[in-house]
Specification:
The chain is an alpha+beta fold. The protein has one domain. Strands 1, 2, 3, 4, 5 and 6 form a 6-stranded mixed beta sheet that branches. It is globular. The chain starts with a helix and ends with a helix. GO terms for molecular function: phosphatidylinositol binding. This is Ysc84 actin-binding domain-containing protein. Keywords: Signal. It holds the Pfam family Ysc84. It comes from Pedobacter miscanthi.
Length: about 230
């Protein structure tokens, strides 16, 4: 290969890399934004007077935050959202997040569109780590109940007995007959690859040390009271 052809090849490779790098950064920014939005949801929930009871938080080993769960329907409806999942490690620290999706359908009296901020509180971290094996159905594979409210409330809860998952949500828009029962949880493999830059599975991500960026550091700080 002569010098002229080699120069052209180098220029072509440089241009290709130059085009790819911004797109990769853009993709990573989307996932970082999802983490940041999840942090905002947790922060806002923490400011609510009628929040998650401390008695439930003490036994929490996992959490899923979906900043925007969209519901739409006219008799037959559907829901779709992207969020993050984190588990509490044995030493009480919180893992790095994995990206997940929640998808479902419904039938019944419903009409309209709604955007919901959703937080799912898990009593056992294994319920989240086992999602890697297949999609999980809320209300099917995992028992789910509307979460009790009130920071210091312990009355009228069954968190010591029955449900594995408790849901908390704030709604925007107009909708009737909303439920996450029957919705499936899946690993967002593509998002994990874009954000972490390599094909790590949920187990590897949960075990990884160090915060990928300040958005992860911040969301972990919101979870400190859950220790």
């Amino acid at each position: 290969m002569n010098f002229s052809k080699l120069t052209k090849l180098i220029v072509l490779v440089a241009c290709t890399v130059g085009l790819l790098v911004p797109s990769l950064v853009s993709a990573q920014d989307k996932e970082k934004k999802r983490i940041e939005e999840s942090g905002v949801v947790l922060s806002d929930f923490g400011k609510m007077k009628e929040s998650i009871p401390s008695s439930l938080l003490k036994v929490t080993e996992g959490i899923i935050i979906v900043p925007k769960l969209l519901n739409a329907g006219f008799v037959v409806g559907g829901k779709r959202g992207r969020g993050i999942a984190m588990v509490k490690r044995e030493d009480g620290s919180w893992s790095n997040p994995i990206f997940v999706t929640i998808t479902g359908g419904s039938f019944g009296l419903q009409i309209g569109v709604q955007s919901v901020e959703l937080v799912l509180v898990f009593k056992h971290s294994s319920s989240i780590t086992n999602i890697k094996k297949s999609s999980f159905t809320l209300g099917g594979d995992l028992s789910i109940a509307a979460g009790p409210v009130g920071r210091n409330s312990t009355a009228n809860t069954d968190y010591k007995l029955d449900a594995e998952v408790y849901s908390y949500s704030r709604s925007k828009g107009i909708f009737a007959g909303v439920s996450v029962n029957g919705a499936s949880l899946d690993i967002d493999t593509a998002a994990n690859l874009r954000y972490y830059g390599k094909g790590m599975g949920p187990t590897e991500i949960f075990a990884s040390q160090g915060d990928p960026d300040d958005a992860v550091t911040k969301i972990k700080s919101y979870l400190v009271p859950l220790k």
